[in-house]
Specification:
The complex is a heterodimer of chains A (about 525) and B (about 140). Chain A has about 525 residues and is of the alpha/beta class. Chain A has helices at about 15-25, 50-55, 60-65, 95, 130-135, 140-155, 180-200, 240-245, 295-310, 375, 385-395, 435-455, 520-535; strands at about 5-10, 30, 100, 125, 155, 175, 200-205, 210, 255, 260-265, 270-275, 280-295, 315, 320, 320-330, 345-350, 360-365, 400-405, 415-420, 425-435, 460, 475, 500-505. In chain A, strands 1, 2, 9, 10, 11, 12 and 23 form a seven-stranded mixed beta sheet that branches. In chain A, α1 (about 15-25) packs parallel to α8, α1 (about 15-25) packs parallel to α13 (about 520-535) and α6 (about 140-155) packs across α13 (about 520-535). Chain A starts with a strand and ends with a helix. In chain B, α1 packs across α2 (about 25-35). Classes of the chains: A alpha/beta (about 525), B mainly alpha (about 140). The structure holds flavin-adenine dinucleotide (FAD).
Chain lengths: ~525, ~140
């Protein structure tokens, strides 16, 4: 029987960071992963800018809308419907292997090589000291970890009004990418009203992004091709598979994919890991000394609930309330398409209502171009032919704000593993996520404030689209961090309570979910957890 | 009920947007992506599509009306697929990219908006007639 040293589950942002820390420390690491890959579209997308592609490429329909039209979403607004064909693989196998029953929660999970990080928007924020405290993390350790992760993945940003909420105290960061016309105008208007905004607790500035504006470690500098929703040709955007591809070259690392990890069982001197080989549908058992779980918050919940075999156990869950708000900036109507452009968020706006750095809400602002007209045209209450004529004038003035609200636990937000004879794993996750009236009112009042402040900058919200709880794709809190040592909790060092050698590296331990982009904090915590797993405590 | 092939359908919908027949590749892509495959068209939907395909002049009216009263209808879905396909063809991309404004641009916006509203009124009547009286 071969007993592996360190096993990490999952190749997403947190698994990649944990694995890198372990590999760099010299121990032997095996990463077990479902690892769905994409090669159909990524290999045919030319290394050209979006407008040149649109004007010249005969095959463009294949990667813009998909061979079977899979990039054309019709019907109700669903989480992830905007994913382009080359990113859709992040959803492969999910419906069958990770079944969910819920009519109140609509999450996105991934079994891809790189996890959700294959499609993430790169937004990076540091949590404030009070937020870290509420989450359950140590501010000194995290500060150090933020720097280490930033060096690995490459973060750009700017020192401006928003930097306390974005790059925080980060020492080394690259300069922010150039803004397009739409954002430049909005930002100029903000600078004129900065004082009034600050009085109301609103701060605007450049977001932190895991994007290289200068070349680093064989990754190129961002080239403003506006193909960010389709391809990663220059690797300027950080994706977790970049880390894993690099680790694969190390002697003390091995990667095994095609596995769905079901559960673990701690024996006296090792841990058994039960895995389903996805292709053959057969069970395989691995053995290891230390296990680091990073399959995402819902993934960890499934694995831990199966492993502890406690009937009818419910676990808490957190997700940011989220809506996206298309806005029109009339001063920009009727401008031609811009060739050199950034597809990611170009401005962030934060609302620090009480001035205490807790309970901060975040809006990320994007221009609308490379996601194409068809995705937005169905929102217009007009016939498509006339809507097309109008939208061509309006398009250059469209801004989309994605608005995230902070989230706390409550008894009406929980997950439970229930029996399901029809599912391959024999179970499914039942999720209930209900906000109370106080929470709903607070969210809607805040949204109004964001809209009125954008209006003051000359950007008019046309509607607010709320795809439902879970659509923020930010999840946390199923195995809360505490010192009690109770089952189904995480100890402050990342160890799963009730085990000797199982650690949780994803966001399951977070007790509170700030509205800010969470993934940089997830990765910093994964690094710290991996370090703790190296200690013999 | 629908005696039109996917390719014939593509021609009708393409013409609605372009005012001329779409090229062969566009028709082929429409047939390949096949918006019917995920359809659960009700009998009313089928009547409306049948009418639209036999009377292409009516599509603008039906589209405008359904944008207000049943924006997720089967006809709108098929038109939407054709819209996306045309948008992803280099030959037609200039019809979908942002356009530079001239001094008449506000007029074009209001004219197109008003035209759609007018079409919607007539379209709603048409929808009632079609769904009540069936085919042709
Ligand atoms: C479109 C989009 C935009 C986003 N934008 C931002 C943003 O701007 N800023 C931000 O902070 N966050 C953003 N996010 C969220 C961010 O992507 C996630 O927070 C982050 O990727 C989570 O990483 P993770 O490692 O915890 O989990 P995941 O990314 O879910 O990775 C899980 C990994 O585990 C594997 N796995 C899961 N279960 C099993 C199993 N049972 N057996 C074997 N393997 C398993 C999967 O294959 C995968 O590799 C965005 C997400 C999306 C989809």
């Amino acid at each position: 029987m071969e007993i592996l040293d360190y096993v990490v589950i999952g190749s997403g942002c947190t698994g990649a960071m944990a694995a890198q820390t372990l590999v760099e420390s010299g121990v032997h690491v095996t990463l077990l992963d479902a690892g769905a890959d994409e090669s159909k579209y990524s290999s045919i997308i030319p290394d050209k800018d979006y407008l040149s592609i649109r004007e010249t490429e005969q095959e463009q329909h294949r990667y813009l809308i998909g061979d079977k039209g899979e990039g054309i979403a019709w019907g109700g607004i669903k989480t992830g419907e905007h994913l382009t064909p080359a990113r859709k693989h992040i959803l492969k196998w999910v419906e069958n292997l990770l079944p969910i029953e819920s009519n109140t929660f609509f999450p996105m999970e991934s079994l891809a090589y790189g996890g959700l990080g294959c499609a993430w928007g790169l937004g990076c924020c540091q949590f404030s000291d009070v937020e870290l405290n509420a989450v359950g993390l140590n501010k000194f350790d995290m500060q150090n970890a933020y720097n280490i992760v930033a060096n690995r993945i490459g973060i750009c940003g700017a020192q401006d009004d928003a930097s306390p909420y974005t790059i925080g105290e980060l020492k080394d960061f690259q300069s922010a990418p150039a803004m397009d016309r739409n954002h430049r105008l909005l930002y100029q208007n903000y600078q004129k009203k900065q004082k009034t905004f600050a009085k109301n607790g609103f701060y605007m500035g450049r977001p932190g992004l895991a994007l290289l504006t200068q070349a680093q470690d064989n990754r190129k500098a961002y080239a403003y091709k506006d193909m960010d929703f389709y391809s990663d040709n220059d690797e300027s955007a950080y994706r977790p598979w970049i880390t894993i591809n690099r680790l694969k070259k190390e002697n003390n690392f091995q990667y095994i994919n095609g596995l769905l990890i079901l559960k673990f069982k701690e024996q006296t001197d090792h841990i058994d890991i039960h895995a389903l080989e996805i292709e053959t549908n057969t069970i395989k058992i691995f053995h290891c000394k230390k296990l680091i779980l990073a399959p995402g918050v819902l993934g960890s919940a499934r694995i831990v609930l199966r492993s502890f075999e406690e009937q009818h156990k419910t676990l808490p869950i957190l997700t940011n309330a989220y809506s996206y708000i298309p806005c029109l900036q009339p001063a920009m109507f009727g401008k031609e398409a811009e060739k050199n452009k950034l597809g990611f968020a170009q401005l962030s706006i934060f609302h620090n209502e009480n001035g205490n750095n807790m309970d901060v809400a975040m809006g990320s602002i994007y221009s609308y171009q490379s996601l194409m007209l068809f995705r937005i045209i169905k929102e217009a209450p007009l016939n498509f032919a006339d809507a097309r004529i109008i939208m061509r004038y309006l398009m250059s003035g469209i801004l989309i704000m994605g608005l995230h609200h902070p989230e706390t636990k409550s008894a009406t937000k929980y997950v439970e593993l229930i029996h399901d004879a029809n599912s391959i794993t024999g179970d499914k996750l039942k999720i209930n996520y209900v906000l109370d009236d106080i929470e709903k009112n607070k969210i809607s009042a805040r949204e109004k404030k964001f809209k009125s402040h954008l209006r003051a900058l000359g950007a008019y919200a046309i509607k607010s689209i709320n795809p439902g709880s879970g659509s923020s794709i930010h999840y946390a809190g199923s195995l809360p961090m505490e010192t009690s040592g109770n089952l189904f909790t995480t100890l402050p060092n990342g160890k799963l309570a009730g085990t000797k050698n199982v650690f949780i590296a994803d966001g399951s331990g977070f007790n509170y979910l700030p509205a800010k982009s969470l993934t940089w904090s997830l990765m910093a915590n994964a690094h710290l957890t991996a370090l703790n797993s190296l200690k013999n405590e | 009920m629908n005696d039109f092939s996917l390719r014939q359908e593509a021609q009708v919908y393409g013409k609605y947007f372009l005012h001329k027949l779409p090229n062969e590749q566009t028709i082929e892509i429409y047939a390949q992506t096949n918006p019917h495959k995920t359809s659960s068209a009700s009998s009313n939907d089928q009547k409306i599509i049948h009418f639209a395909l036999h009377h292409p002049w009516s599509i603008g009216f039906l589209d405008a009306a359904q944008a207000l009263v049943k924006s997720d209808s089967e006809l709108r879905k098929r038109l939407y697929f054709m819209f996306a396909i045309l948008e992803s063809r280099p030959e037609y991309c200039s019809l979908f990219l942002p356009t530079k404004r001239n001094w008449l641009y506000l007029f074009f916006i209001f004219y197109s908006g008003a035209r759609s509203v007018f079409k919607a009124f007539f379209g709603i009547l048409l929808l009632k007639i079609i769904t009540r009286h069936g085919n042709s």
